[in-house]
Design goal:
alpha+beta, nine-stranded mixed β-sheet, elongated
Length: about 240
C-alpha cells in the first residue's frame, strides 16, 4: 500500500547499489537486453550517471522490481535479493525525512555526435540525448563551468591507445579561448574529428593521431581559417 506522506530523496550511491543487486551475476549486456536499455547506458548508471524517470521505469519493469524501491529504497527488496547488503535503515528513513536536493552530481548536456578518431565522417544530426552526470566537486576543482561542457563520442581508432572507438568524451567548448597544445575536437573539411593539435609559433597547426598507423596533417598559417577548434577534450574515462 502506498504511503501518501512519503518524502522521496534520490541517493545516487544507494541507487547504484540496488542496481548492482538486481543485476547480480548476470552479464551487463544480457541484463541490458532484458530491460530494453543499451549496455552503455547501464554502465553509465553504474558509474554514477543519473537515469531519467523513463529509463528507471524501464529497468524496474524489465527486472520485475518495484520502482519506488529501485529509485528511493522505499518498500521491501525483491524476494530474489538478500537484504543483508543493503543499508535498509538509511533507505527506509527516506520515507519519513524531508527530501533534500542531491548536489553531488551535475548533469552535462550530451549529443548524438561522433567525432571521428579515424579518417573522418560527416557531421550528423546534432541531437541532444540523455545528459550524463559528473561529480560536482570534480568539476569545481577543475574550474569547469557546466554550461561550457558537452558530452559526445569518439568514432574510429586513430587516437588509440589514448581514446578508443565509441569512448565517451567530455569537451570544454572553446568559446573564443586561445587554443593550446593538446587533444581537441575540430571541424575540418566538413568532418568532425578528435585529434591532437600542436600549434607552431609561426602560425601553422600540426594535426596528429596518437595511433602511429595514421599520418599527421600540417595546416599552414594561410589555411588556418579552414580549421575550427570546437573545444578541448578534458576527459575520456580519464583526465587530460
Amino acid at each position: 500500500m502506498s504511503n501518501k506522506n512519503a518524502r522521496y530523496s534520490f541517493d545516487s550511491a544507494q541507487f547504484i547499489e540496488r542496481l548492482k543487486l538486481i543485476i547480480g551475476d548476470t552479464p551487463v549486456r544480457r541484463f541490458s537486453r532484458t530491460v530494453g536499455i543499451s549496455d552503455t547506458l547501464i554502465r553509465n548508471y553504474l558509474s554514477g550517471s543519473m537515469p531519467s524517470v523513463e529509463k528507471a521505469a524501464d529497468i524496474a519493469n524489465g527486472a520485475d522490481v518495484d520502482f519506488s524501491w529501485l529509485c528511493f529504497g522505499i518498500g521491501d527488496a525483491p524476494d530474489f535479493i538478500s537484504s543483508k547488503n543493503l543499508d535498509l535503515s538509511r533507505n527506509q528513513s527516506a520515507a519519513s525525512e524531508p527530501a533534500t536536493p542531491d548536489n553531488s552530481f551535475t548533469l552535462i548536456d550530451s549529443y548524438a555526435i561522433y567525432a571521428s578518431a579515424g579518417h573522418g565522417s560527416e557531421i550528423g544530426h546534432e541531437l541532444q540525448t540523455e545528459p550524463m552526470s559528473f561529480r560536482t566537486d570534480w568539476l569545481r576543482k577543475e574550474g569547469f563551468s557546466p554550461e561550457r561542457l558537452a558530452v559526445i563520442r569518439a568514432k574510429g581508432d586513430s587516437m588509440e591507445p589514448t581514446i578508443s572507438d565509441n569512448d565517451v568524451i567530455l569537451v570544454l567548448l572553446a568559446n573564443g579561448d586561445a587554443p593550446r597544445d593538446g587533444l581537441h575536437v575540430i571541424r575540418l573539411d566538413g568532418g568532425l574529428f578528435v585529434k591532437r593539435l600542436q600549434f607552431d609559433p609561426l602560425g601553422a597547426v600540426h594535426v596528429k593521431s596518437d595511433n602511429p598507423a595514421y599520418s599527421s596533417t600540417l595546416i599552414s598559417k594561410d589555411e588556418r581559417s579552414q580549421l575550427h577548434v570546437v573545444g578541448r577534450v578534458v576527459w575520456a574515462g580519464k583526465k587530460f
